[in-house]
Predict the 3D structure of the following.
Amino acid sequence: MLSILSTHPRATRAILAAVGFCLSSLIALPLVLGQPAASAVVAVNVTPLARYSGGTYLIEVQGGYAFAAEGFGLTVLDLAVPSQPTPVAATGPFYSAITSLALSGGLAYATEGAGTLHVFDISDPIHPLELATFDTTYALTDIALEGGYAFVTTNGDGLRVLSVSDLNAIAEIGHYNTPGTDLSVAVAGGIAYVADRGSGLRILNVSDPAHPTSLTAIDTPGDAVDVQVQGQTLFLADGTALRLYDVTNPAAPITQGVWSGGAWKITLAGGRAFLGAGPTAFSIVDVSDVSAPVLVASRSDQHIGNHLAVAGNYLYAPHQSPNIKVYDIGDPATPVAVGGYTTPGTCQLGVDDTTLYLATGPLTIVDFADPQHPTVVGQSSPHGLGQGNRVRVVGSRAYVASDQLHIFDVSDPADPHRVGLFDPLGFVWDVDLMNNLAYLGTASGLVIVDVTNPTNPIEEGSYTEALDARRVWVAALNGSLYAFVASRSSGGLFILNVDVPSEPTLVAQIASLTSNGYTDVVVADDYAYAVETGAGIRVIDIRDMAHITTVRTVPFVHSPGGPFGLLNLAGGRLFLLTKSGVPTDLESVRIYDLGNPDDPVEVSAYAEVQGKTVEVAGATLYIPDCGGGVQAFSFVAPIPTPTPTPQASPTAPSPVVYRIFVPSVWREPYSDIALP
């Protein structure tokens, strides 16, 4: 069959910006000759729509406010109480994560990894206003400003010079193709200093911004990853050390001092260099004597980021949890953690139209009706939900699978409160509801609980052969009730008749071909779709429960390392969140069309951050990021190309082409990832 491949240019830039590891997907769709058939599969475009919080990657501080790249947007935090940053505004969502941020006067310039420059008016920090955007054809990694120009590094496409003096007419006017992977840039006095990774430091004359020229280059022992200039001193981080150079004559830099130690990102303040030293530490180095830099203090923290900000006696560091960690550095020799800024972390959520129910420790309810301004409606008292394993909302109750089954009354979203608790004596992975019965997937198997009275849940029955039951789907088929239980143990997929809840009976057991078990299962009419770890989606014909057969296995695409996946089902489509099991690996949402139910066809893919579920409401996907936050995406089928008037010859009709673009993003900007 003829096919055509197509990618979206912004997706291409995001793939390039992933640095070293990326997920690129080209999806081939049929060329349909003549009038498209009614059953033709149409590609689906997935687009960022909204966000609620998210991981923090980098921070800049100005005028009593912190500007944090958080999730896919910019969050403004009030630092009136320095140890307790308070969010007061947010922008976005952007198409991908922010990779660099430069503040100049009342403007903020933010580069987006997928290739867009955003410019905001932050003269009123509580009401940031986007003034301009400029799309490029390359990934953006860093930005420096001087004299009405923005100098941006592009992760391998060279230094680009943008004229930004007129925000209504931003334009690229100059380019210098460095030989390496340009990651960072600093500009002072018409000279640009470029950290070019394996090619070391590149020094360029940009006094004529339209025609940058090379002055010299320095081959650094490590990979040049960040550069800053202060006065006549250049500070270079090459992973292995902080290196200081006298650049009074930029064409002939003179080495002044070296401090050996981890150095990935540099922040200068008060005669000191604050160094992000990989994902686990930061260091404070006294550089008041540029010829003899001296270590003042180091602080280890397994979840700290590289981009640091300093204001007065406080250091602000991106952190996994909390999002931002605050250190008192009044005595720089002994930095002390004194506070932070935290957003609820969640790996699971339930969704009811545009209302989200997040398991975040307490139960948090977020209204997504206005995609640009998701708001917290209510929050319960803390109940140790952790990040939860599954949240199901039925009527006025929310059921949270966690260490136990937690039952909440959510009839008043502003006042969610727990009304019931059930301990099955085994960790609860999943919960499904049918006829006032809760079907729990637990570490010790399937447990069926009567929740008619939520304050007094009562166990009705159990099936303990289905050990490590990760997912449960209950369906009424041909007048009977069945529970489909996906087990991560070698027992595989269990199909149980539960007409008598106290006595579940085995109908069929489908072993795992890979001996790795199953992670999820959904049922649509005559077919069950089960995710088999390391293999793919098993399509199971259940039209005749006496003769259940496996029709096919749809293999995972672009998911190396023994992948497993999590499913959802809505509107005739399967939604698969694939996970490799490798913490630093990308995960992706893949959408399959079920027009032919025994042969799912992939129609879209979108790389995304870590999560444990994908929820669907209408034409919106909601994906929780375990690092703290929720991303919302719209998914729509593009309008097909109009069918041309048929040609005279019936044997040569004009084709109708369906195409798809495949956006791709990464978990963190490059500069927060330790280089090999």
About this structure: The chain has one helix and 59 strands. The mean pLDDT is 81. Residues 115 and 605 are 20 Å apart (CA to CA). The helical segments are 9-17.
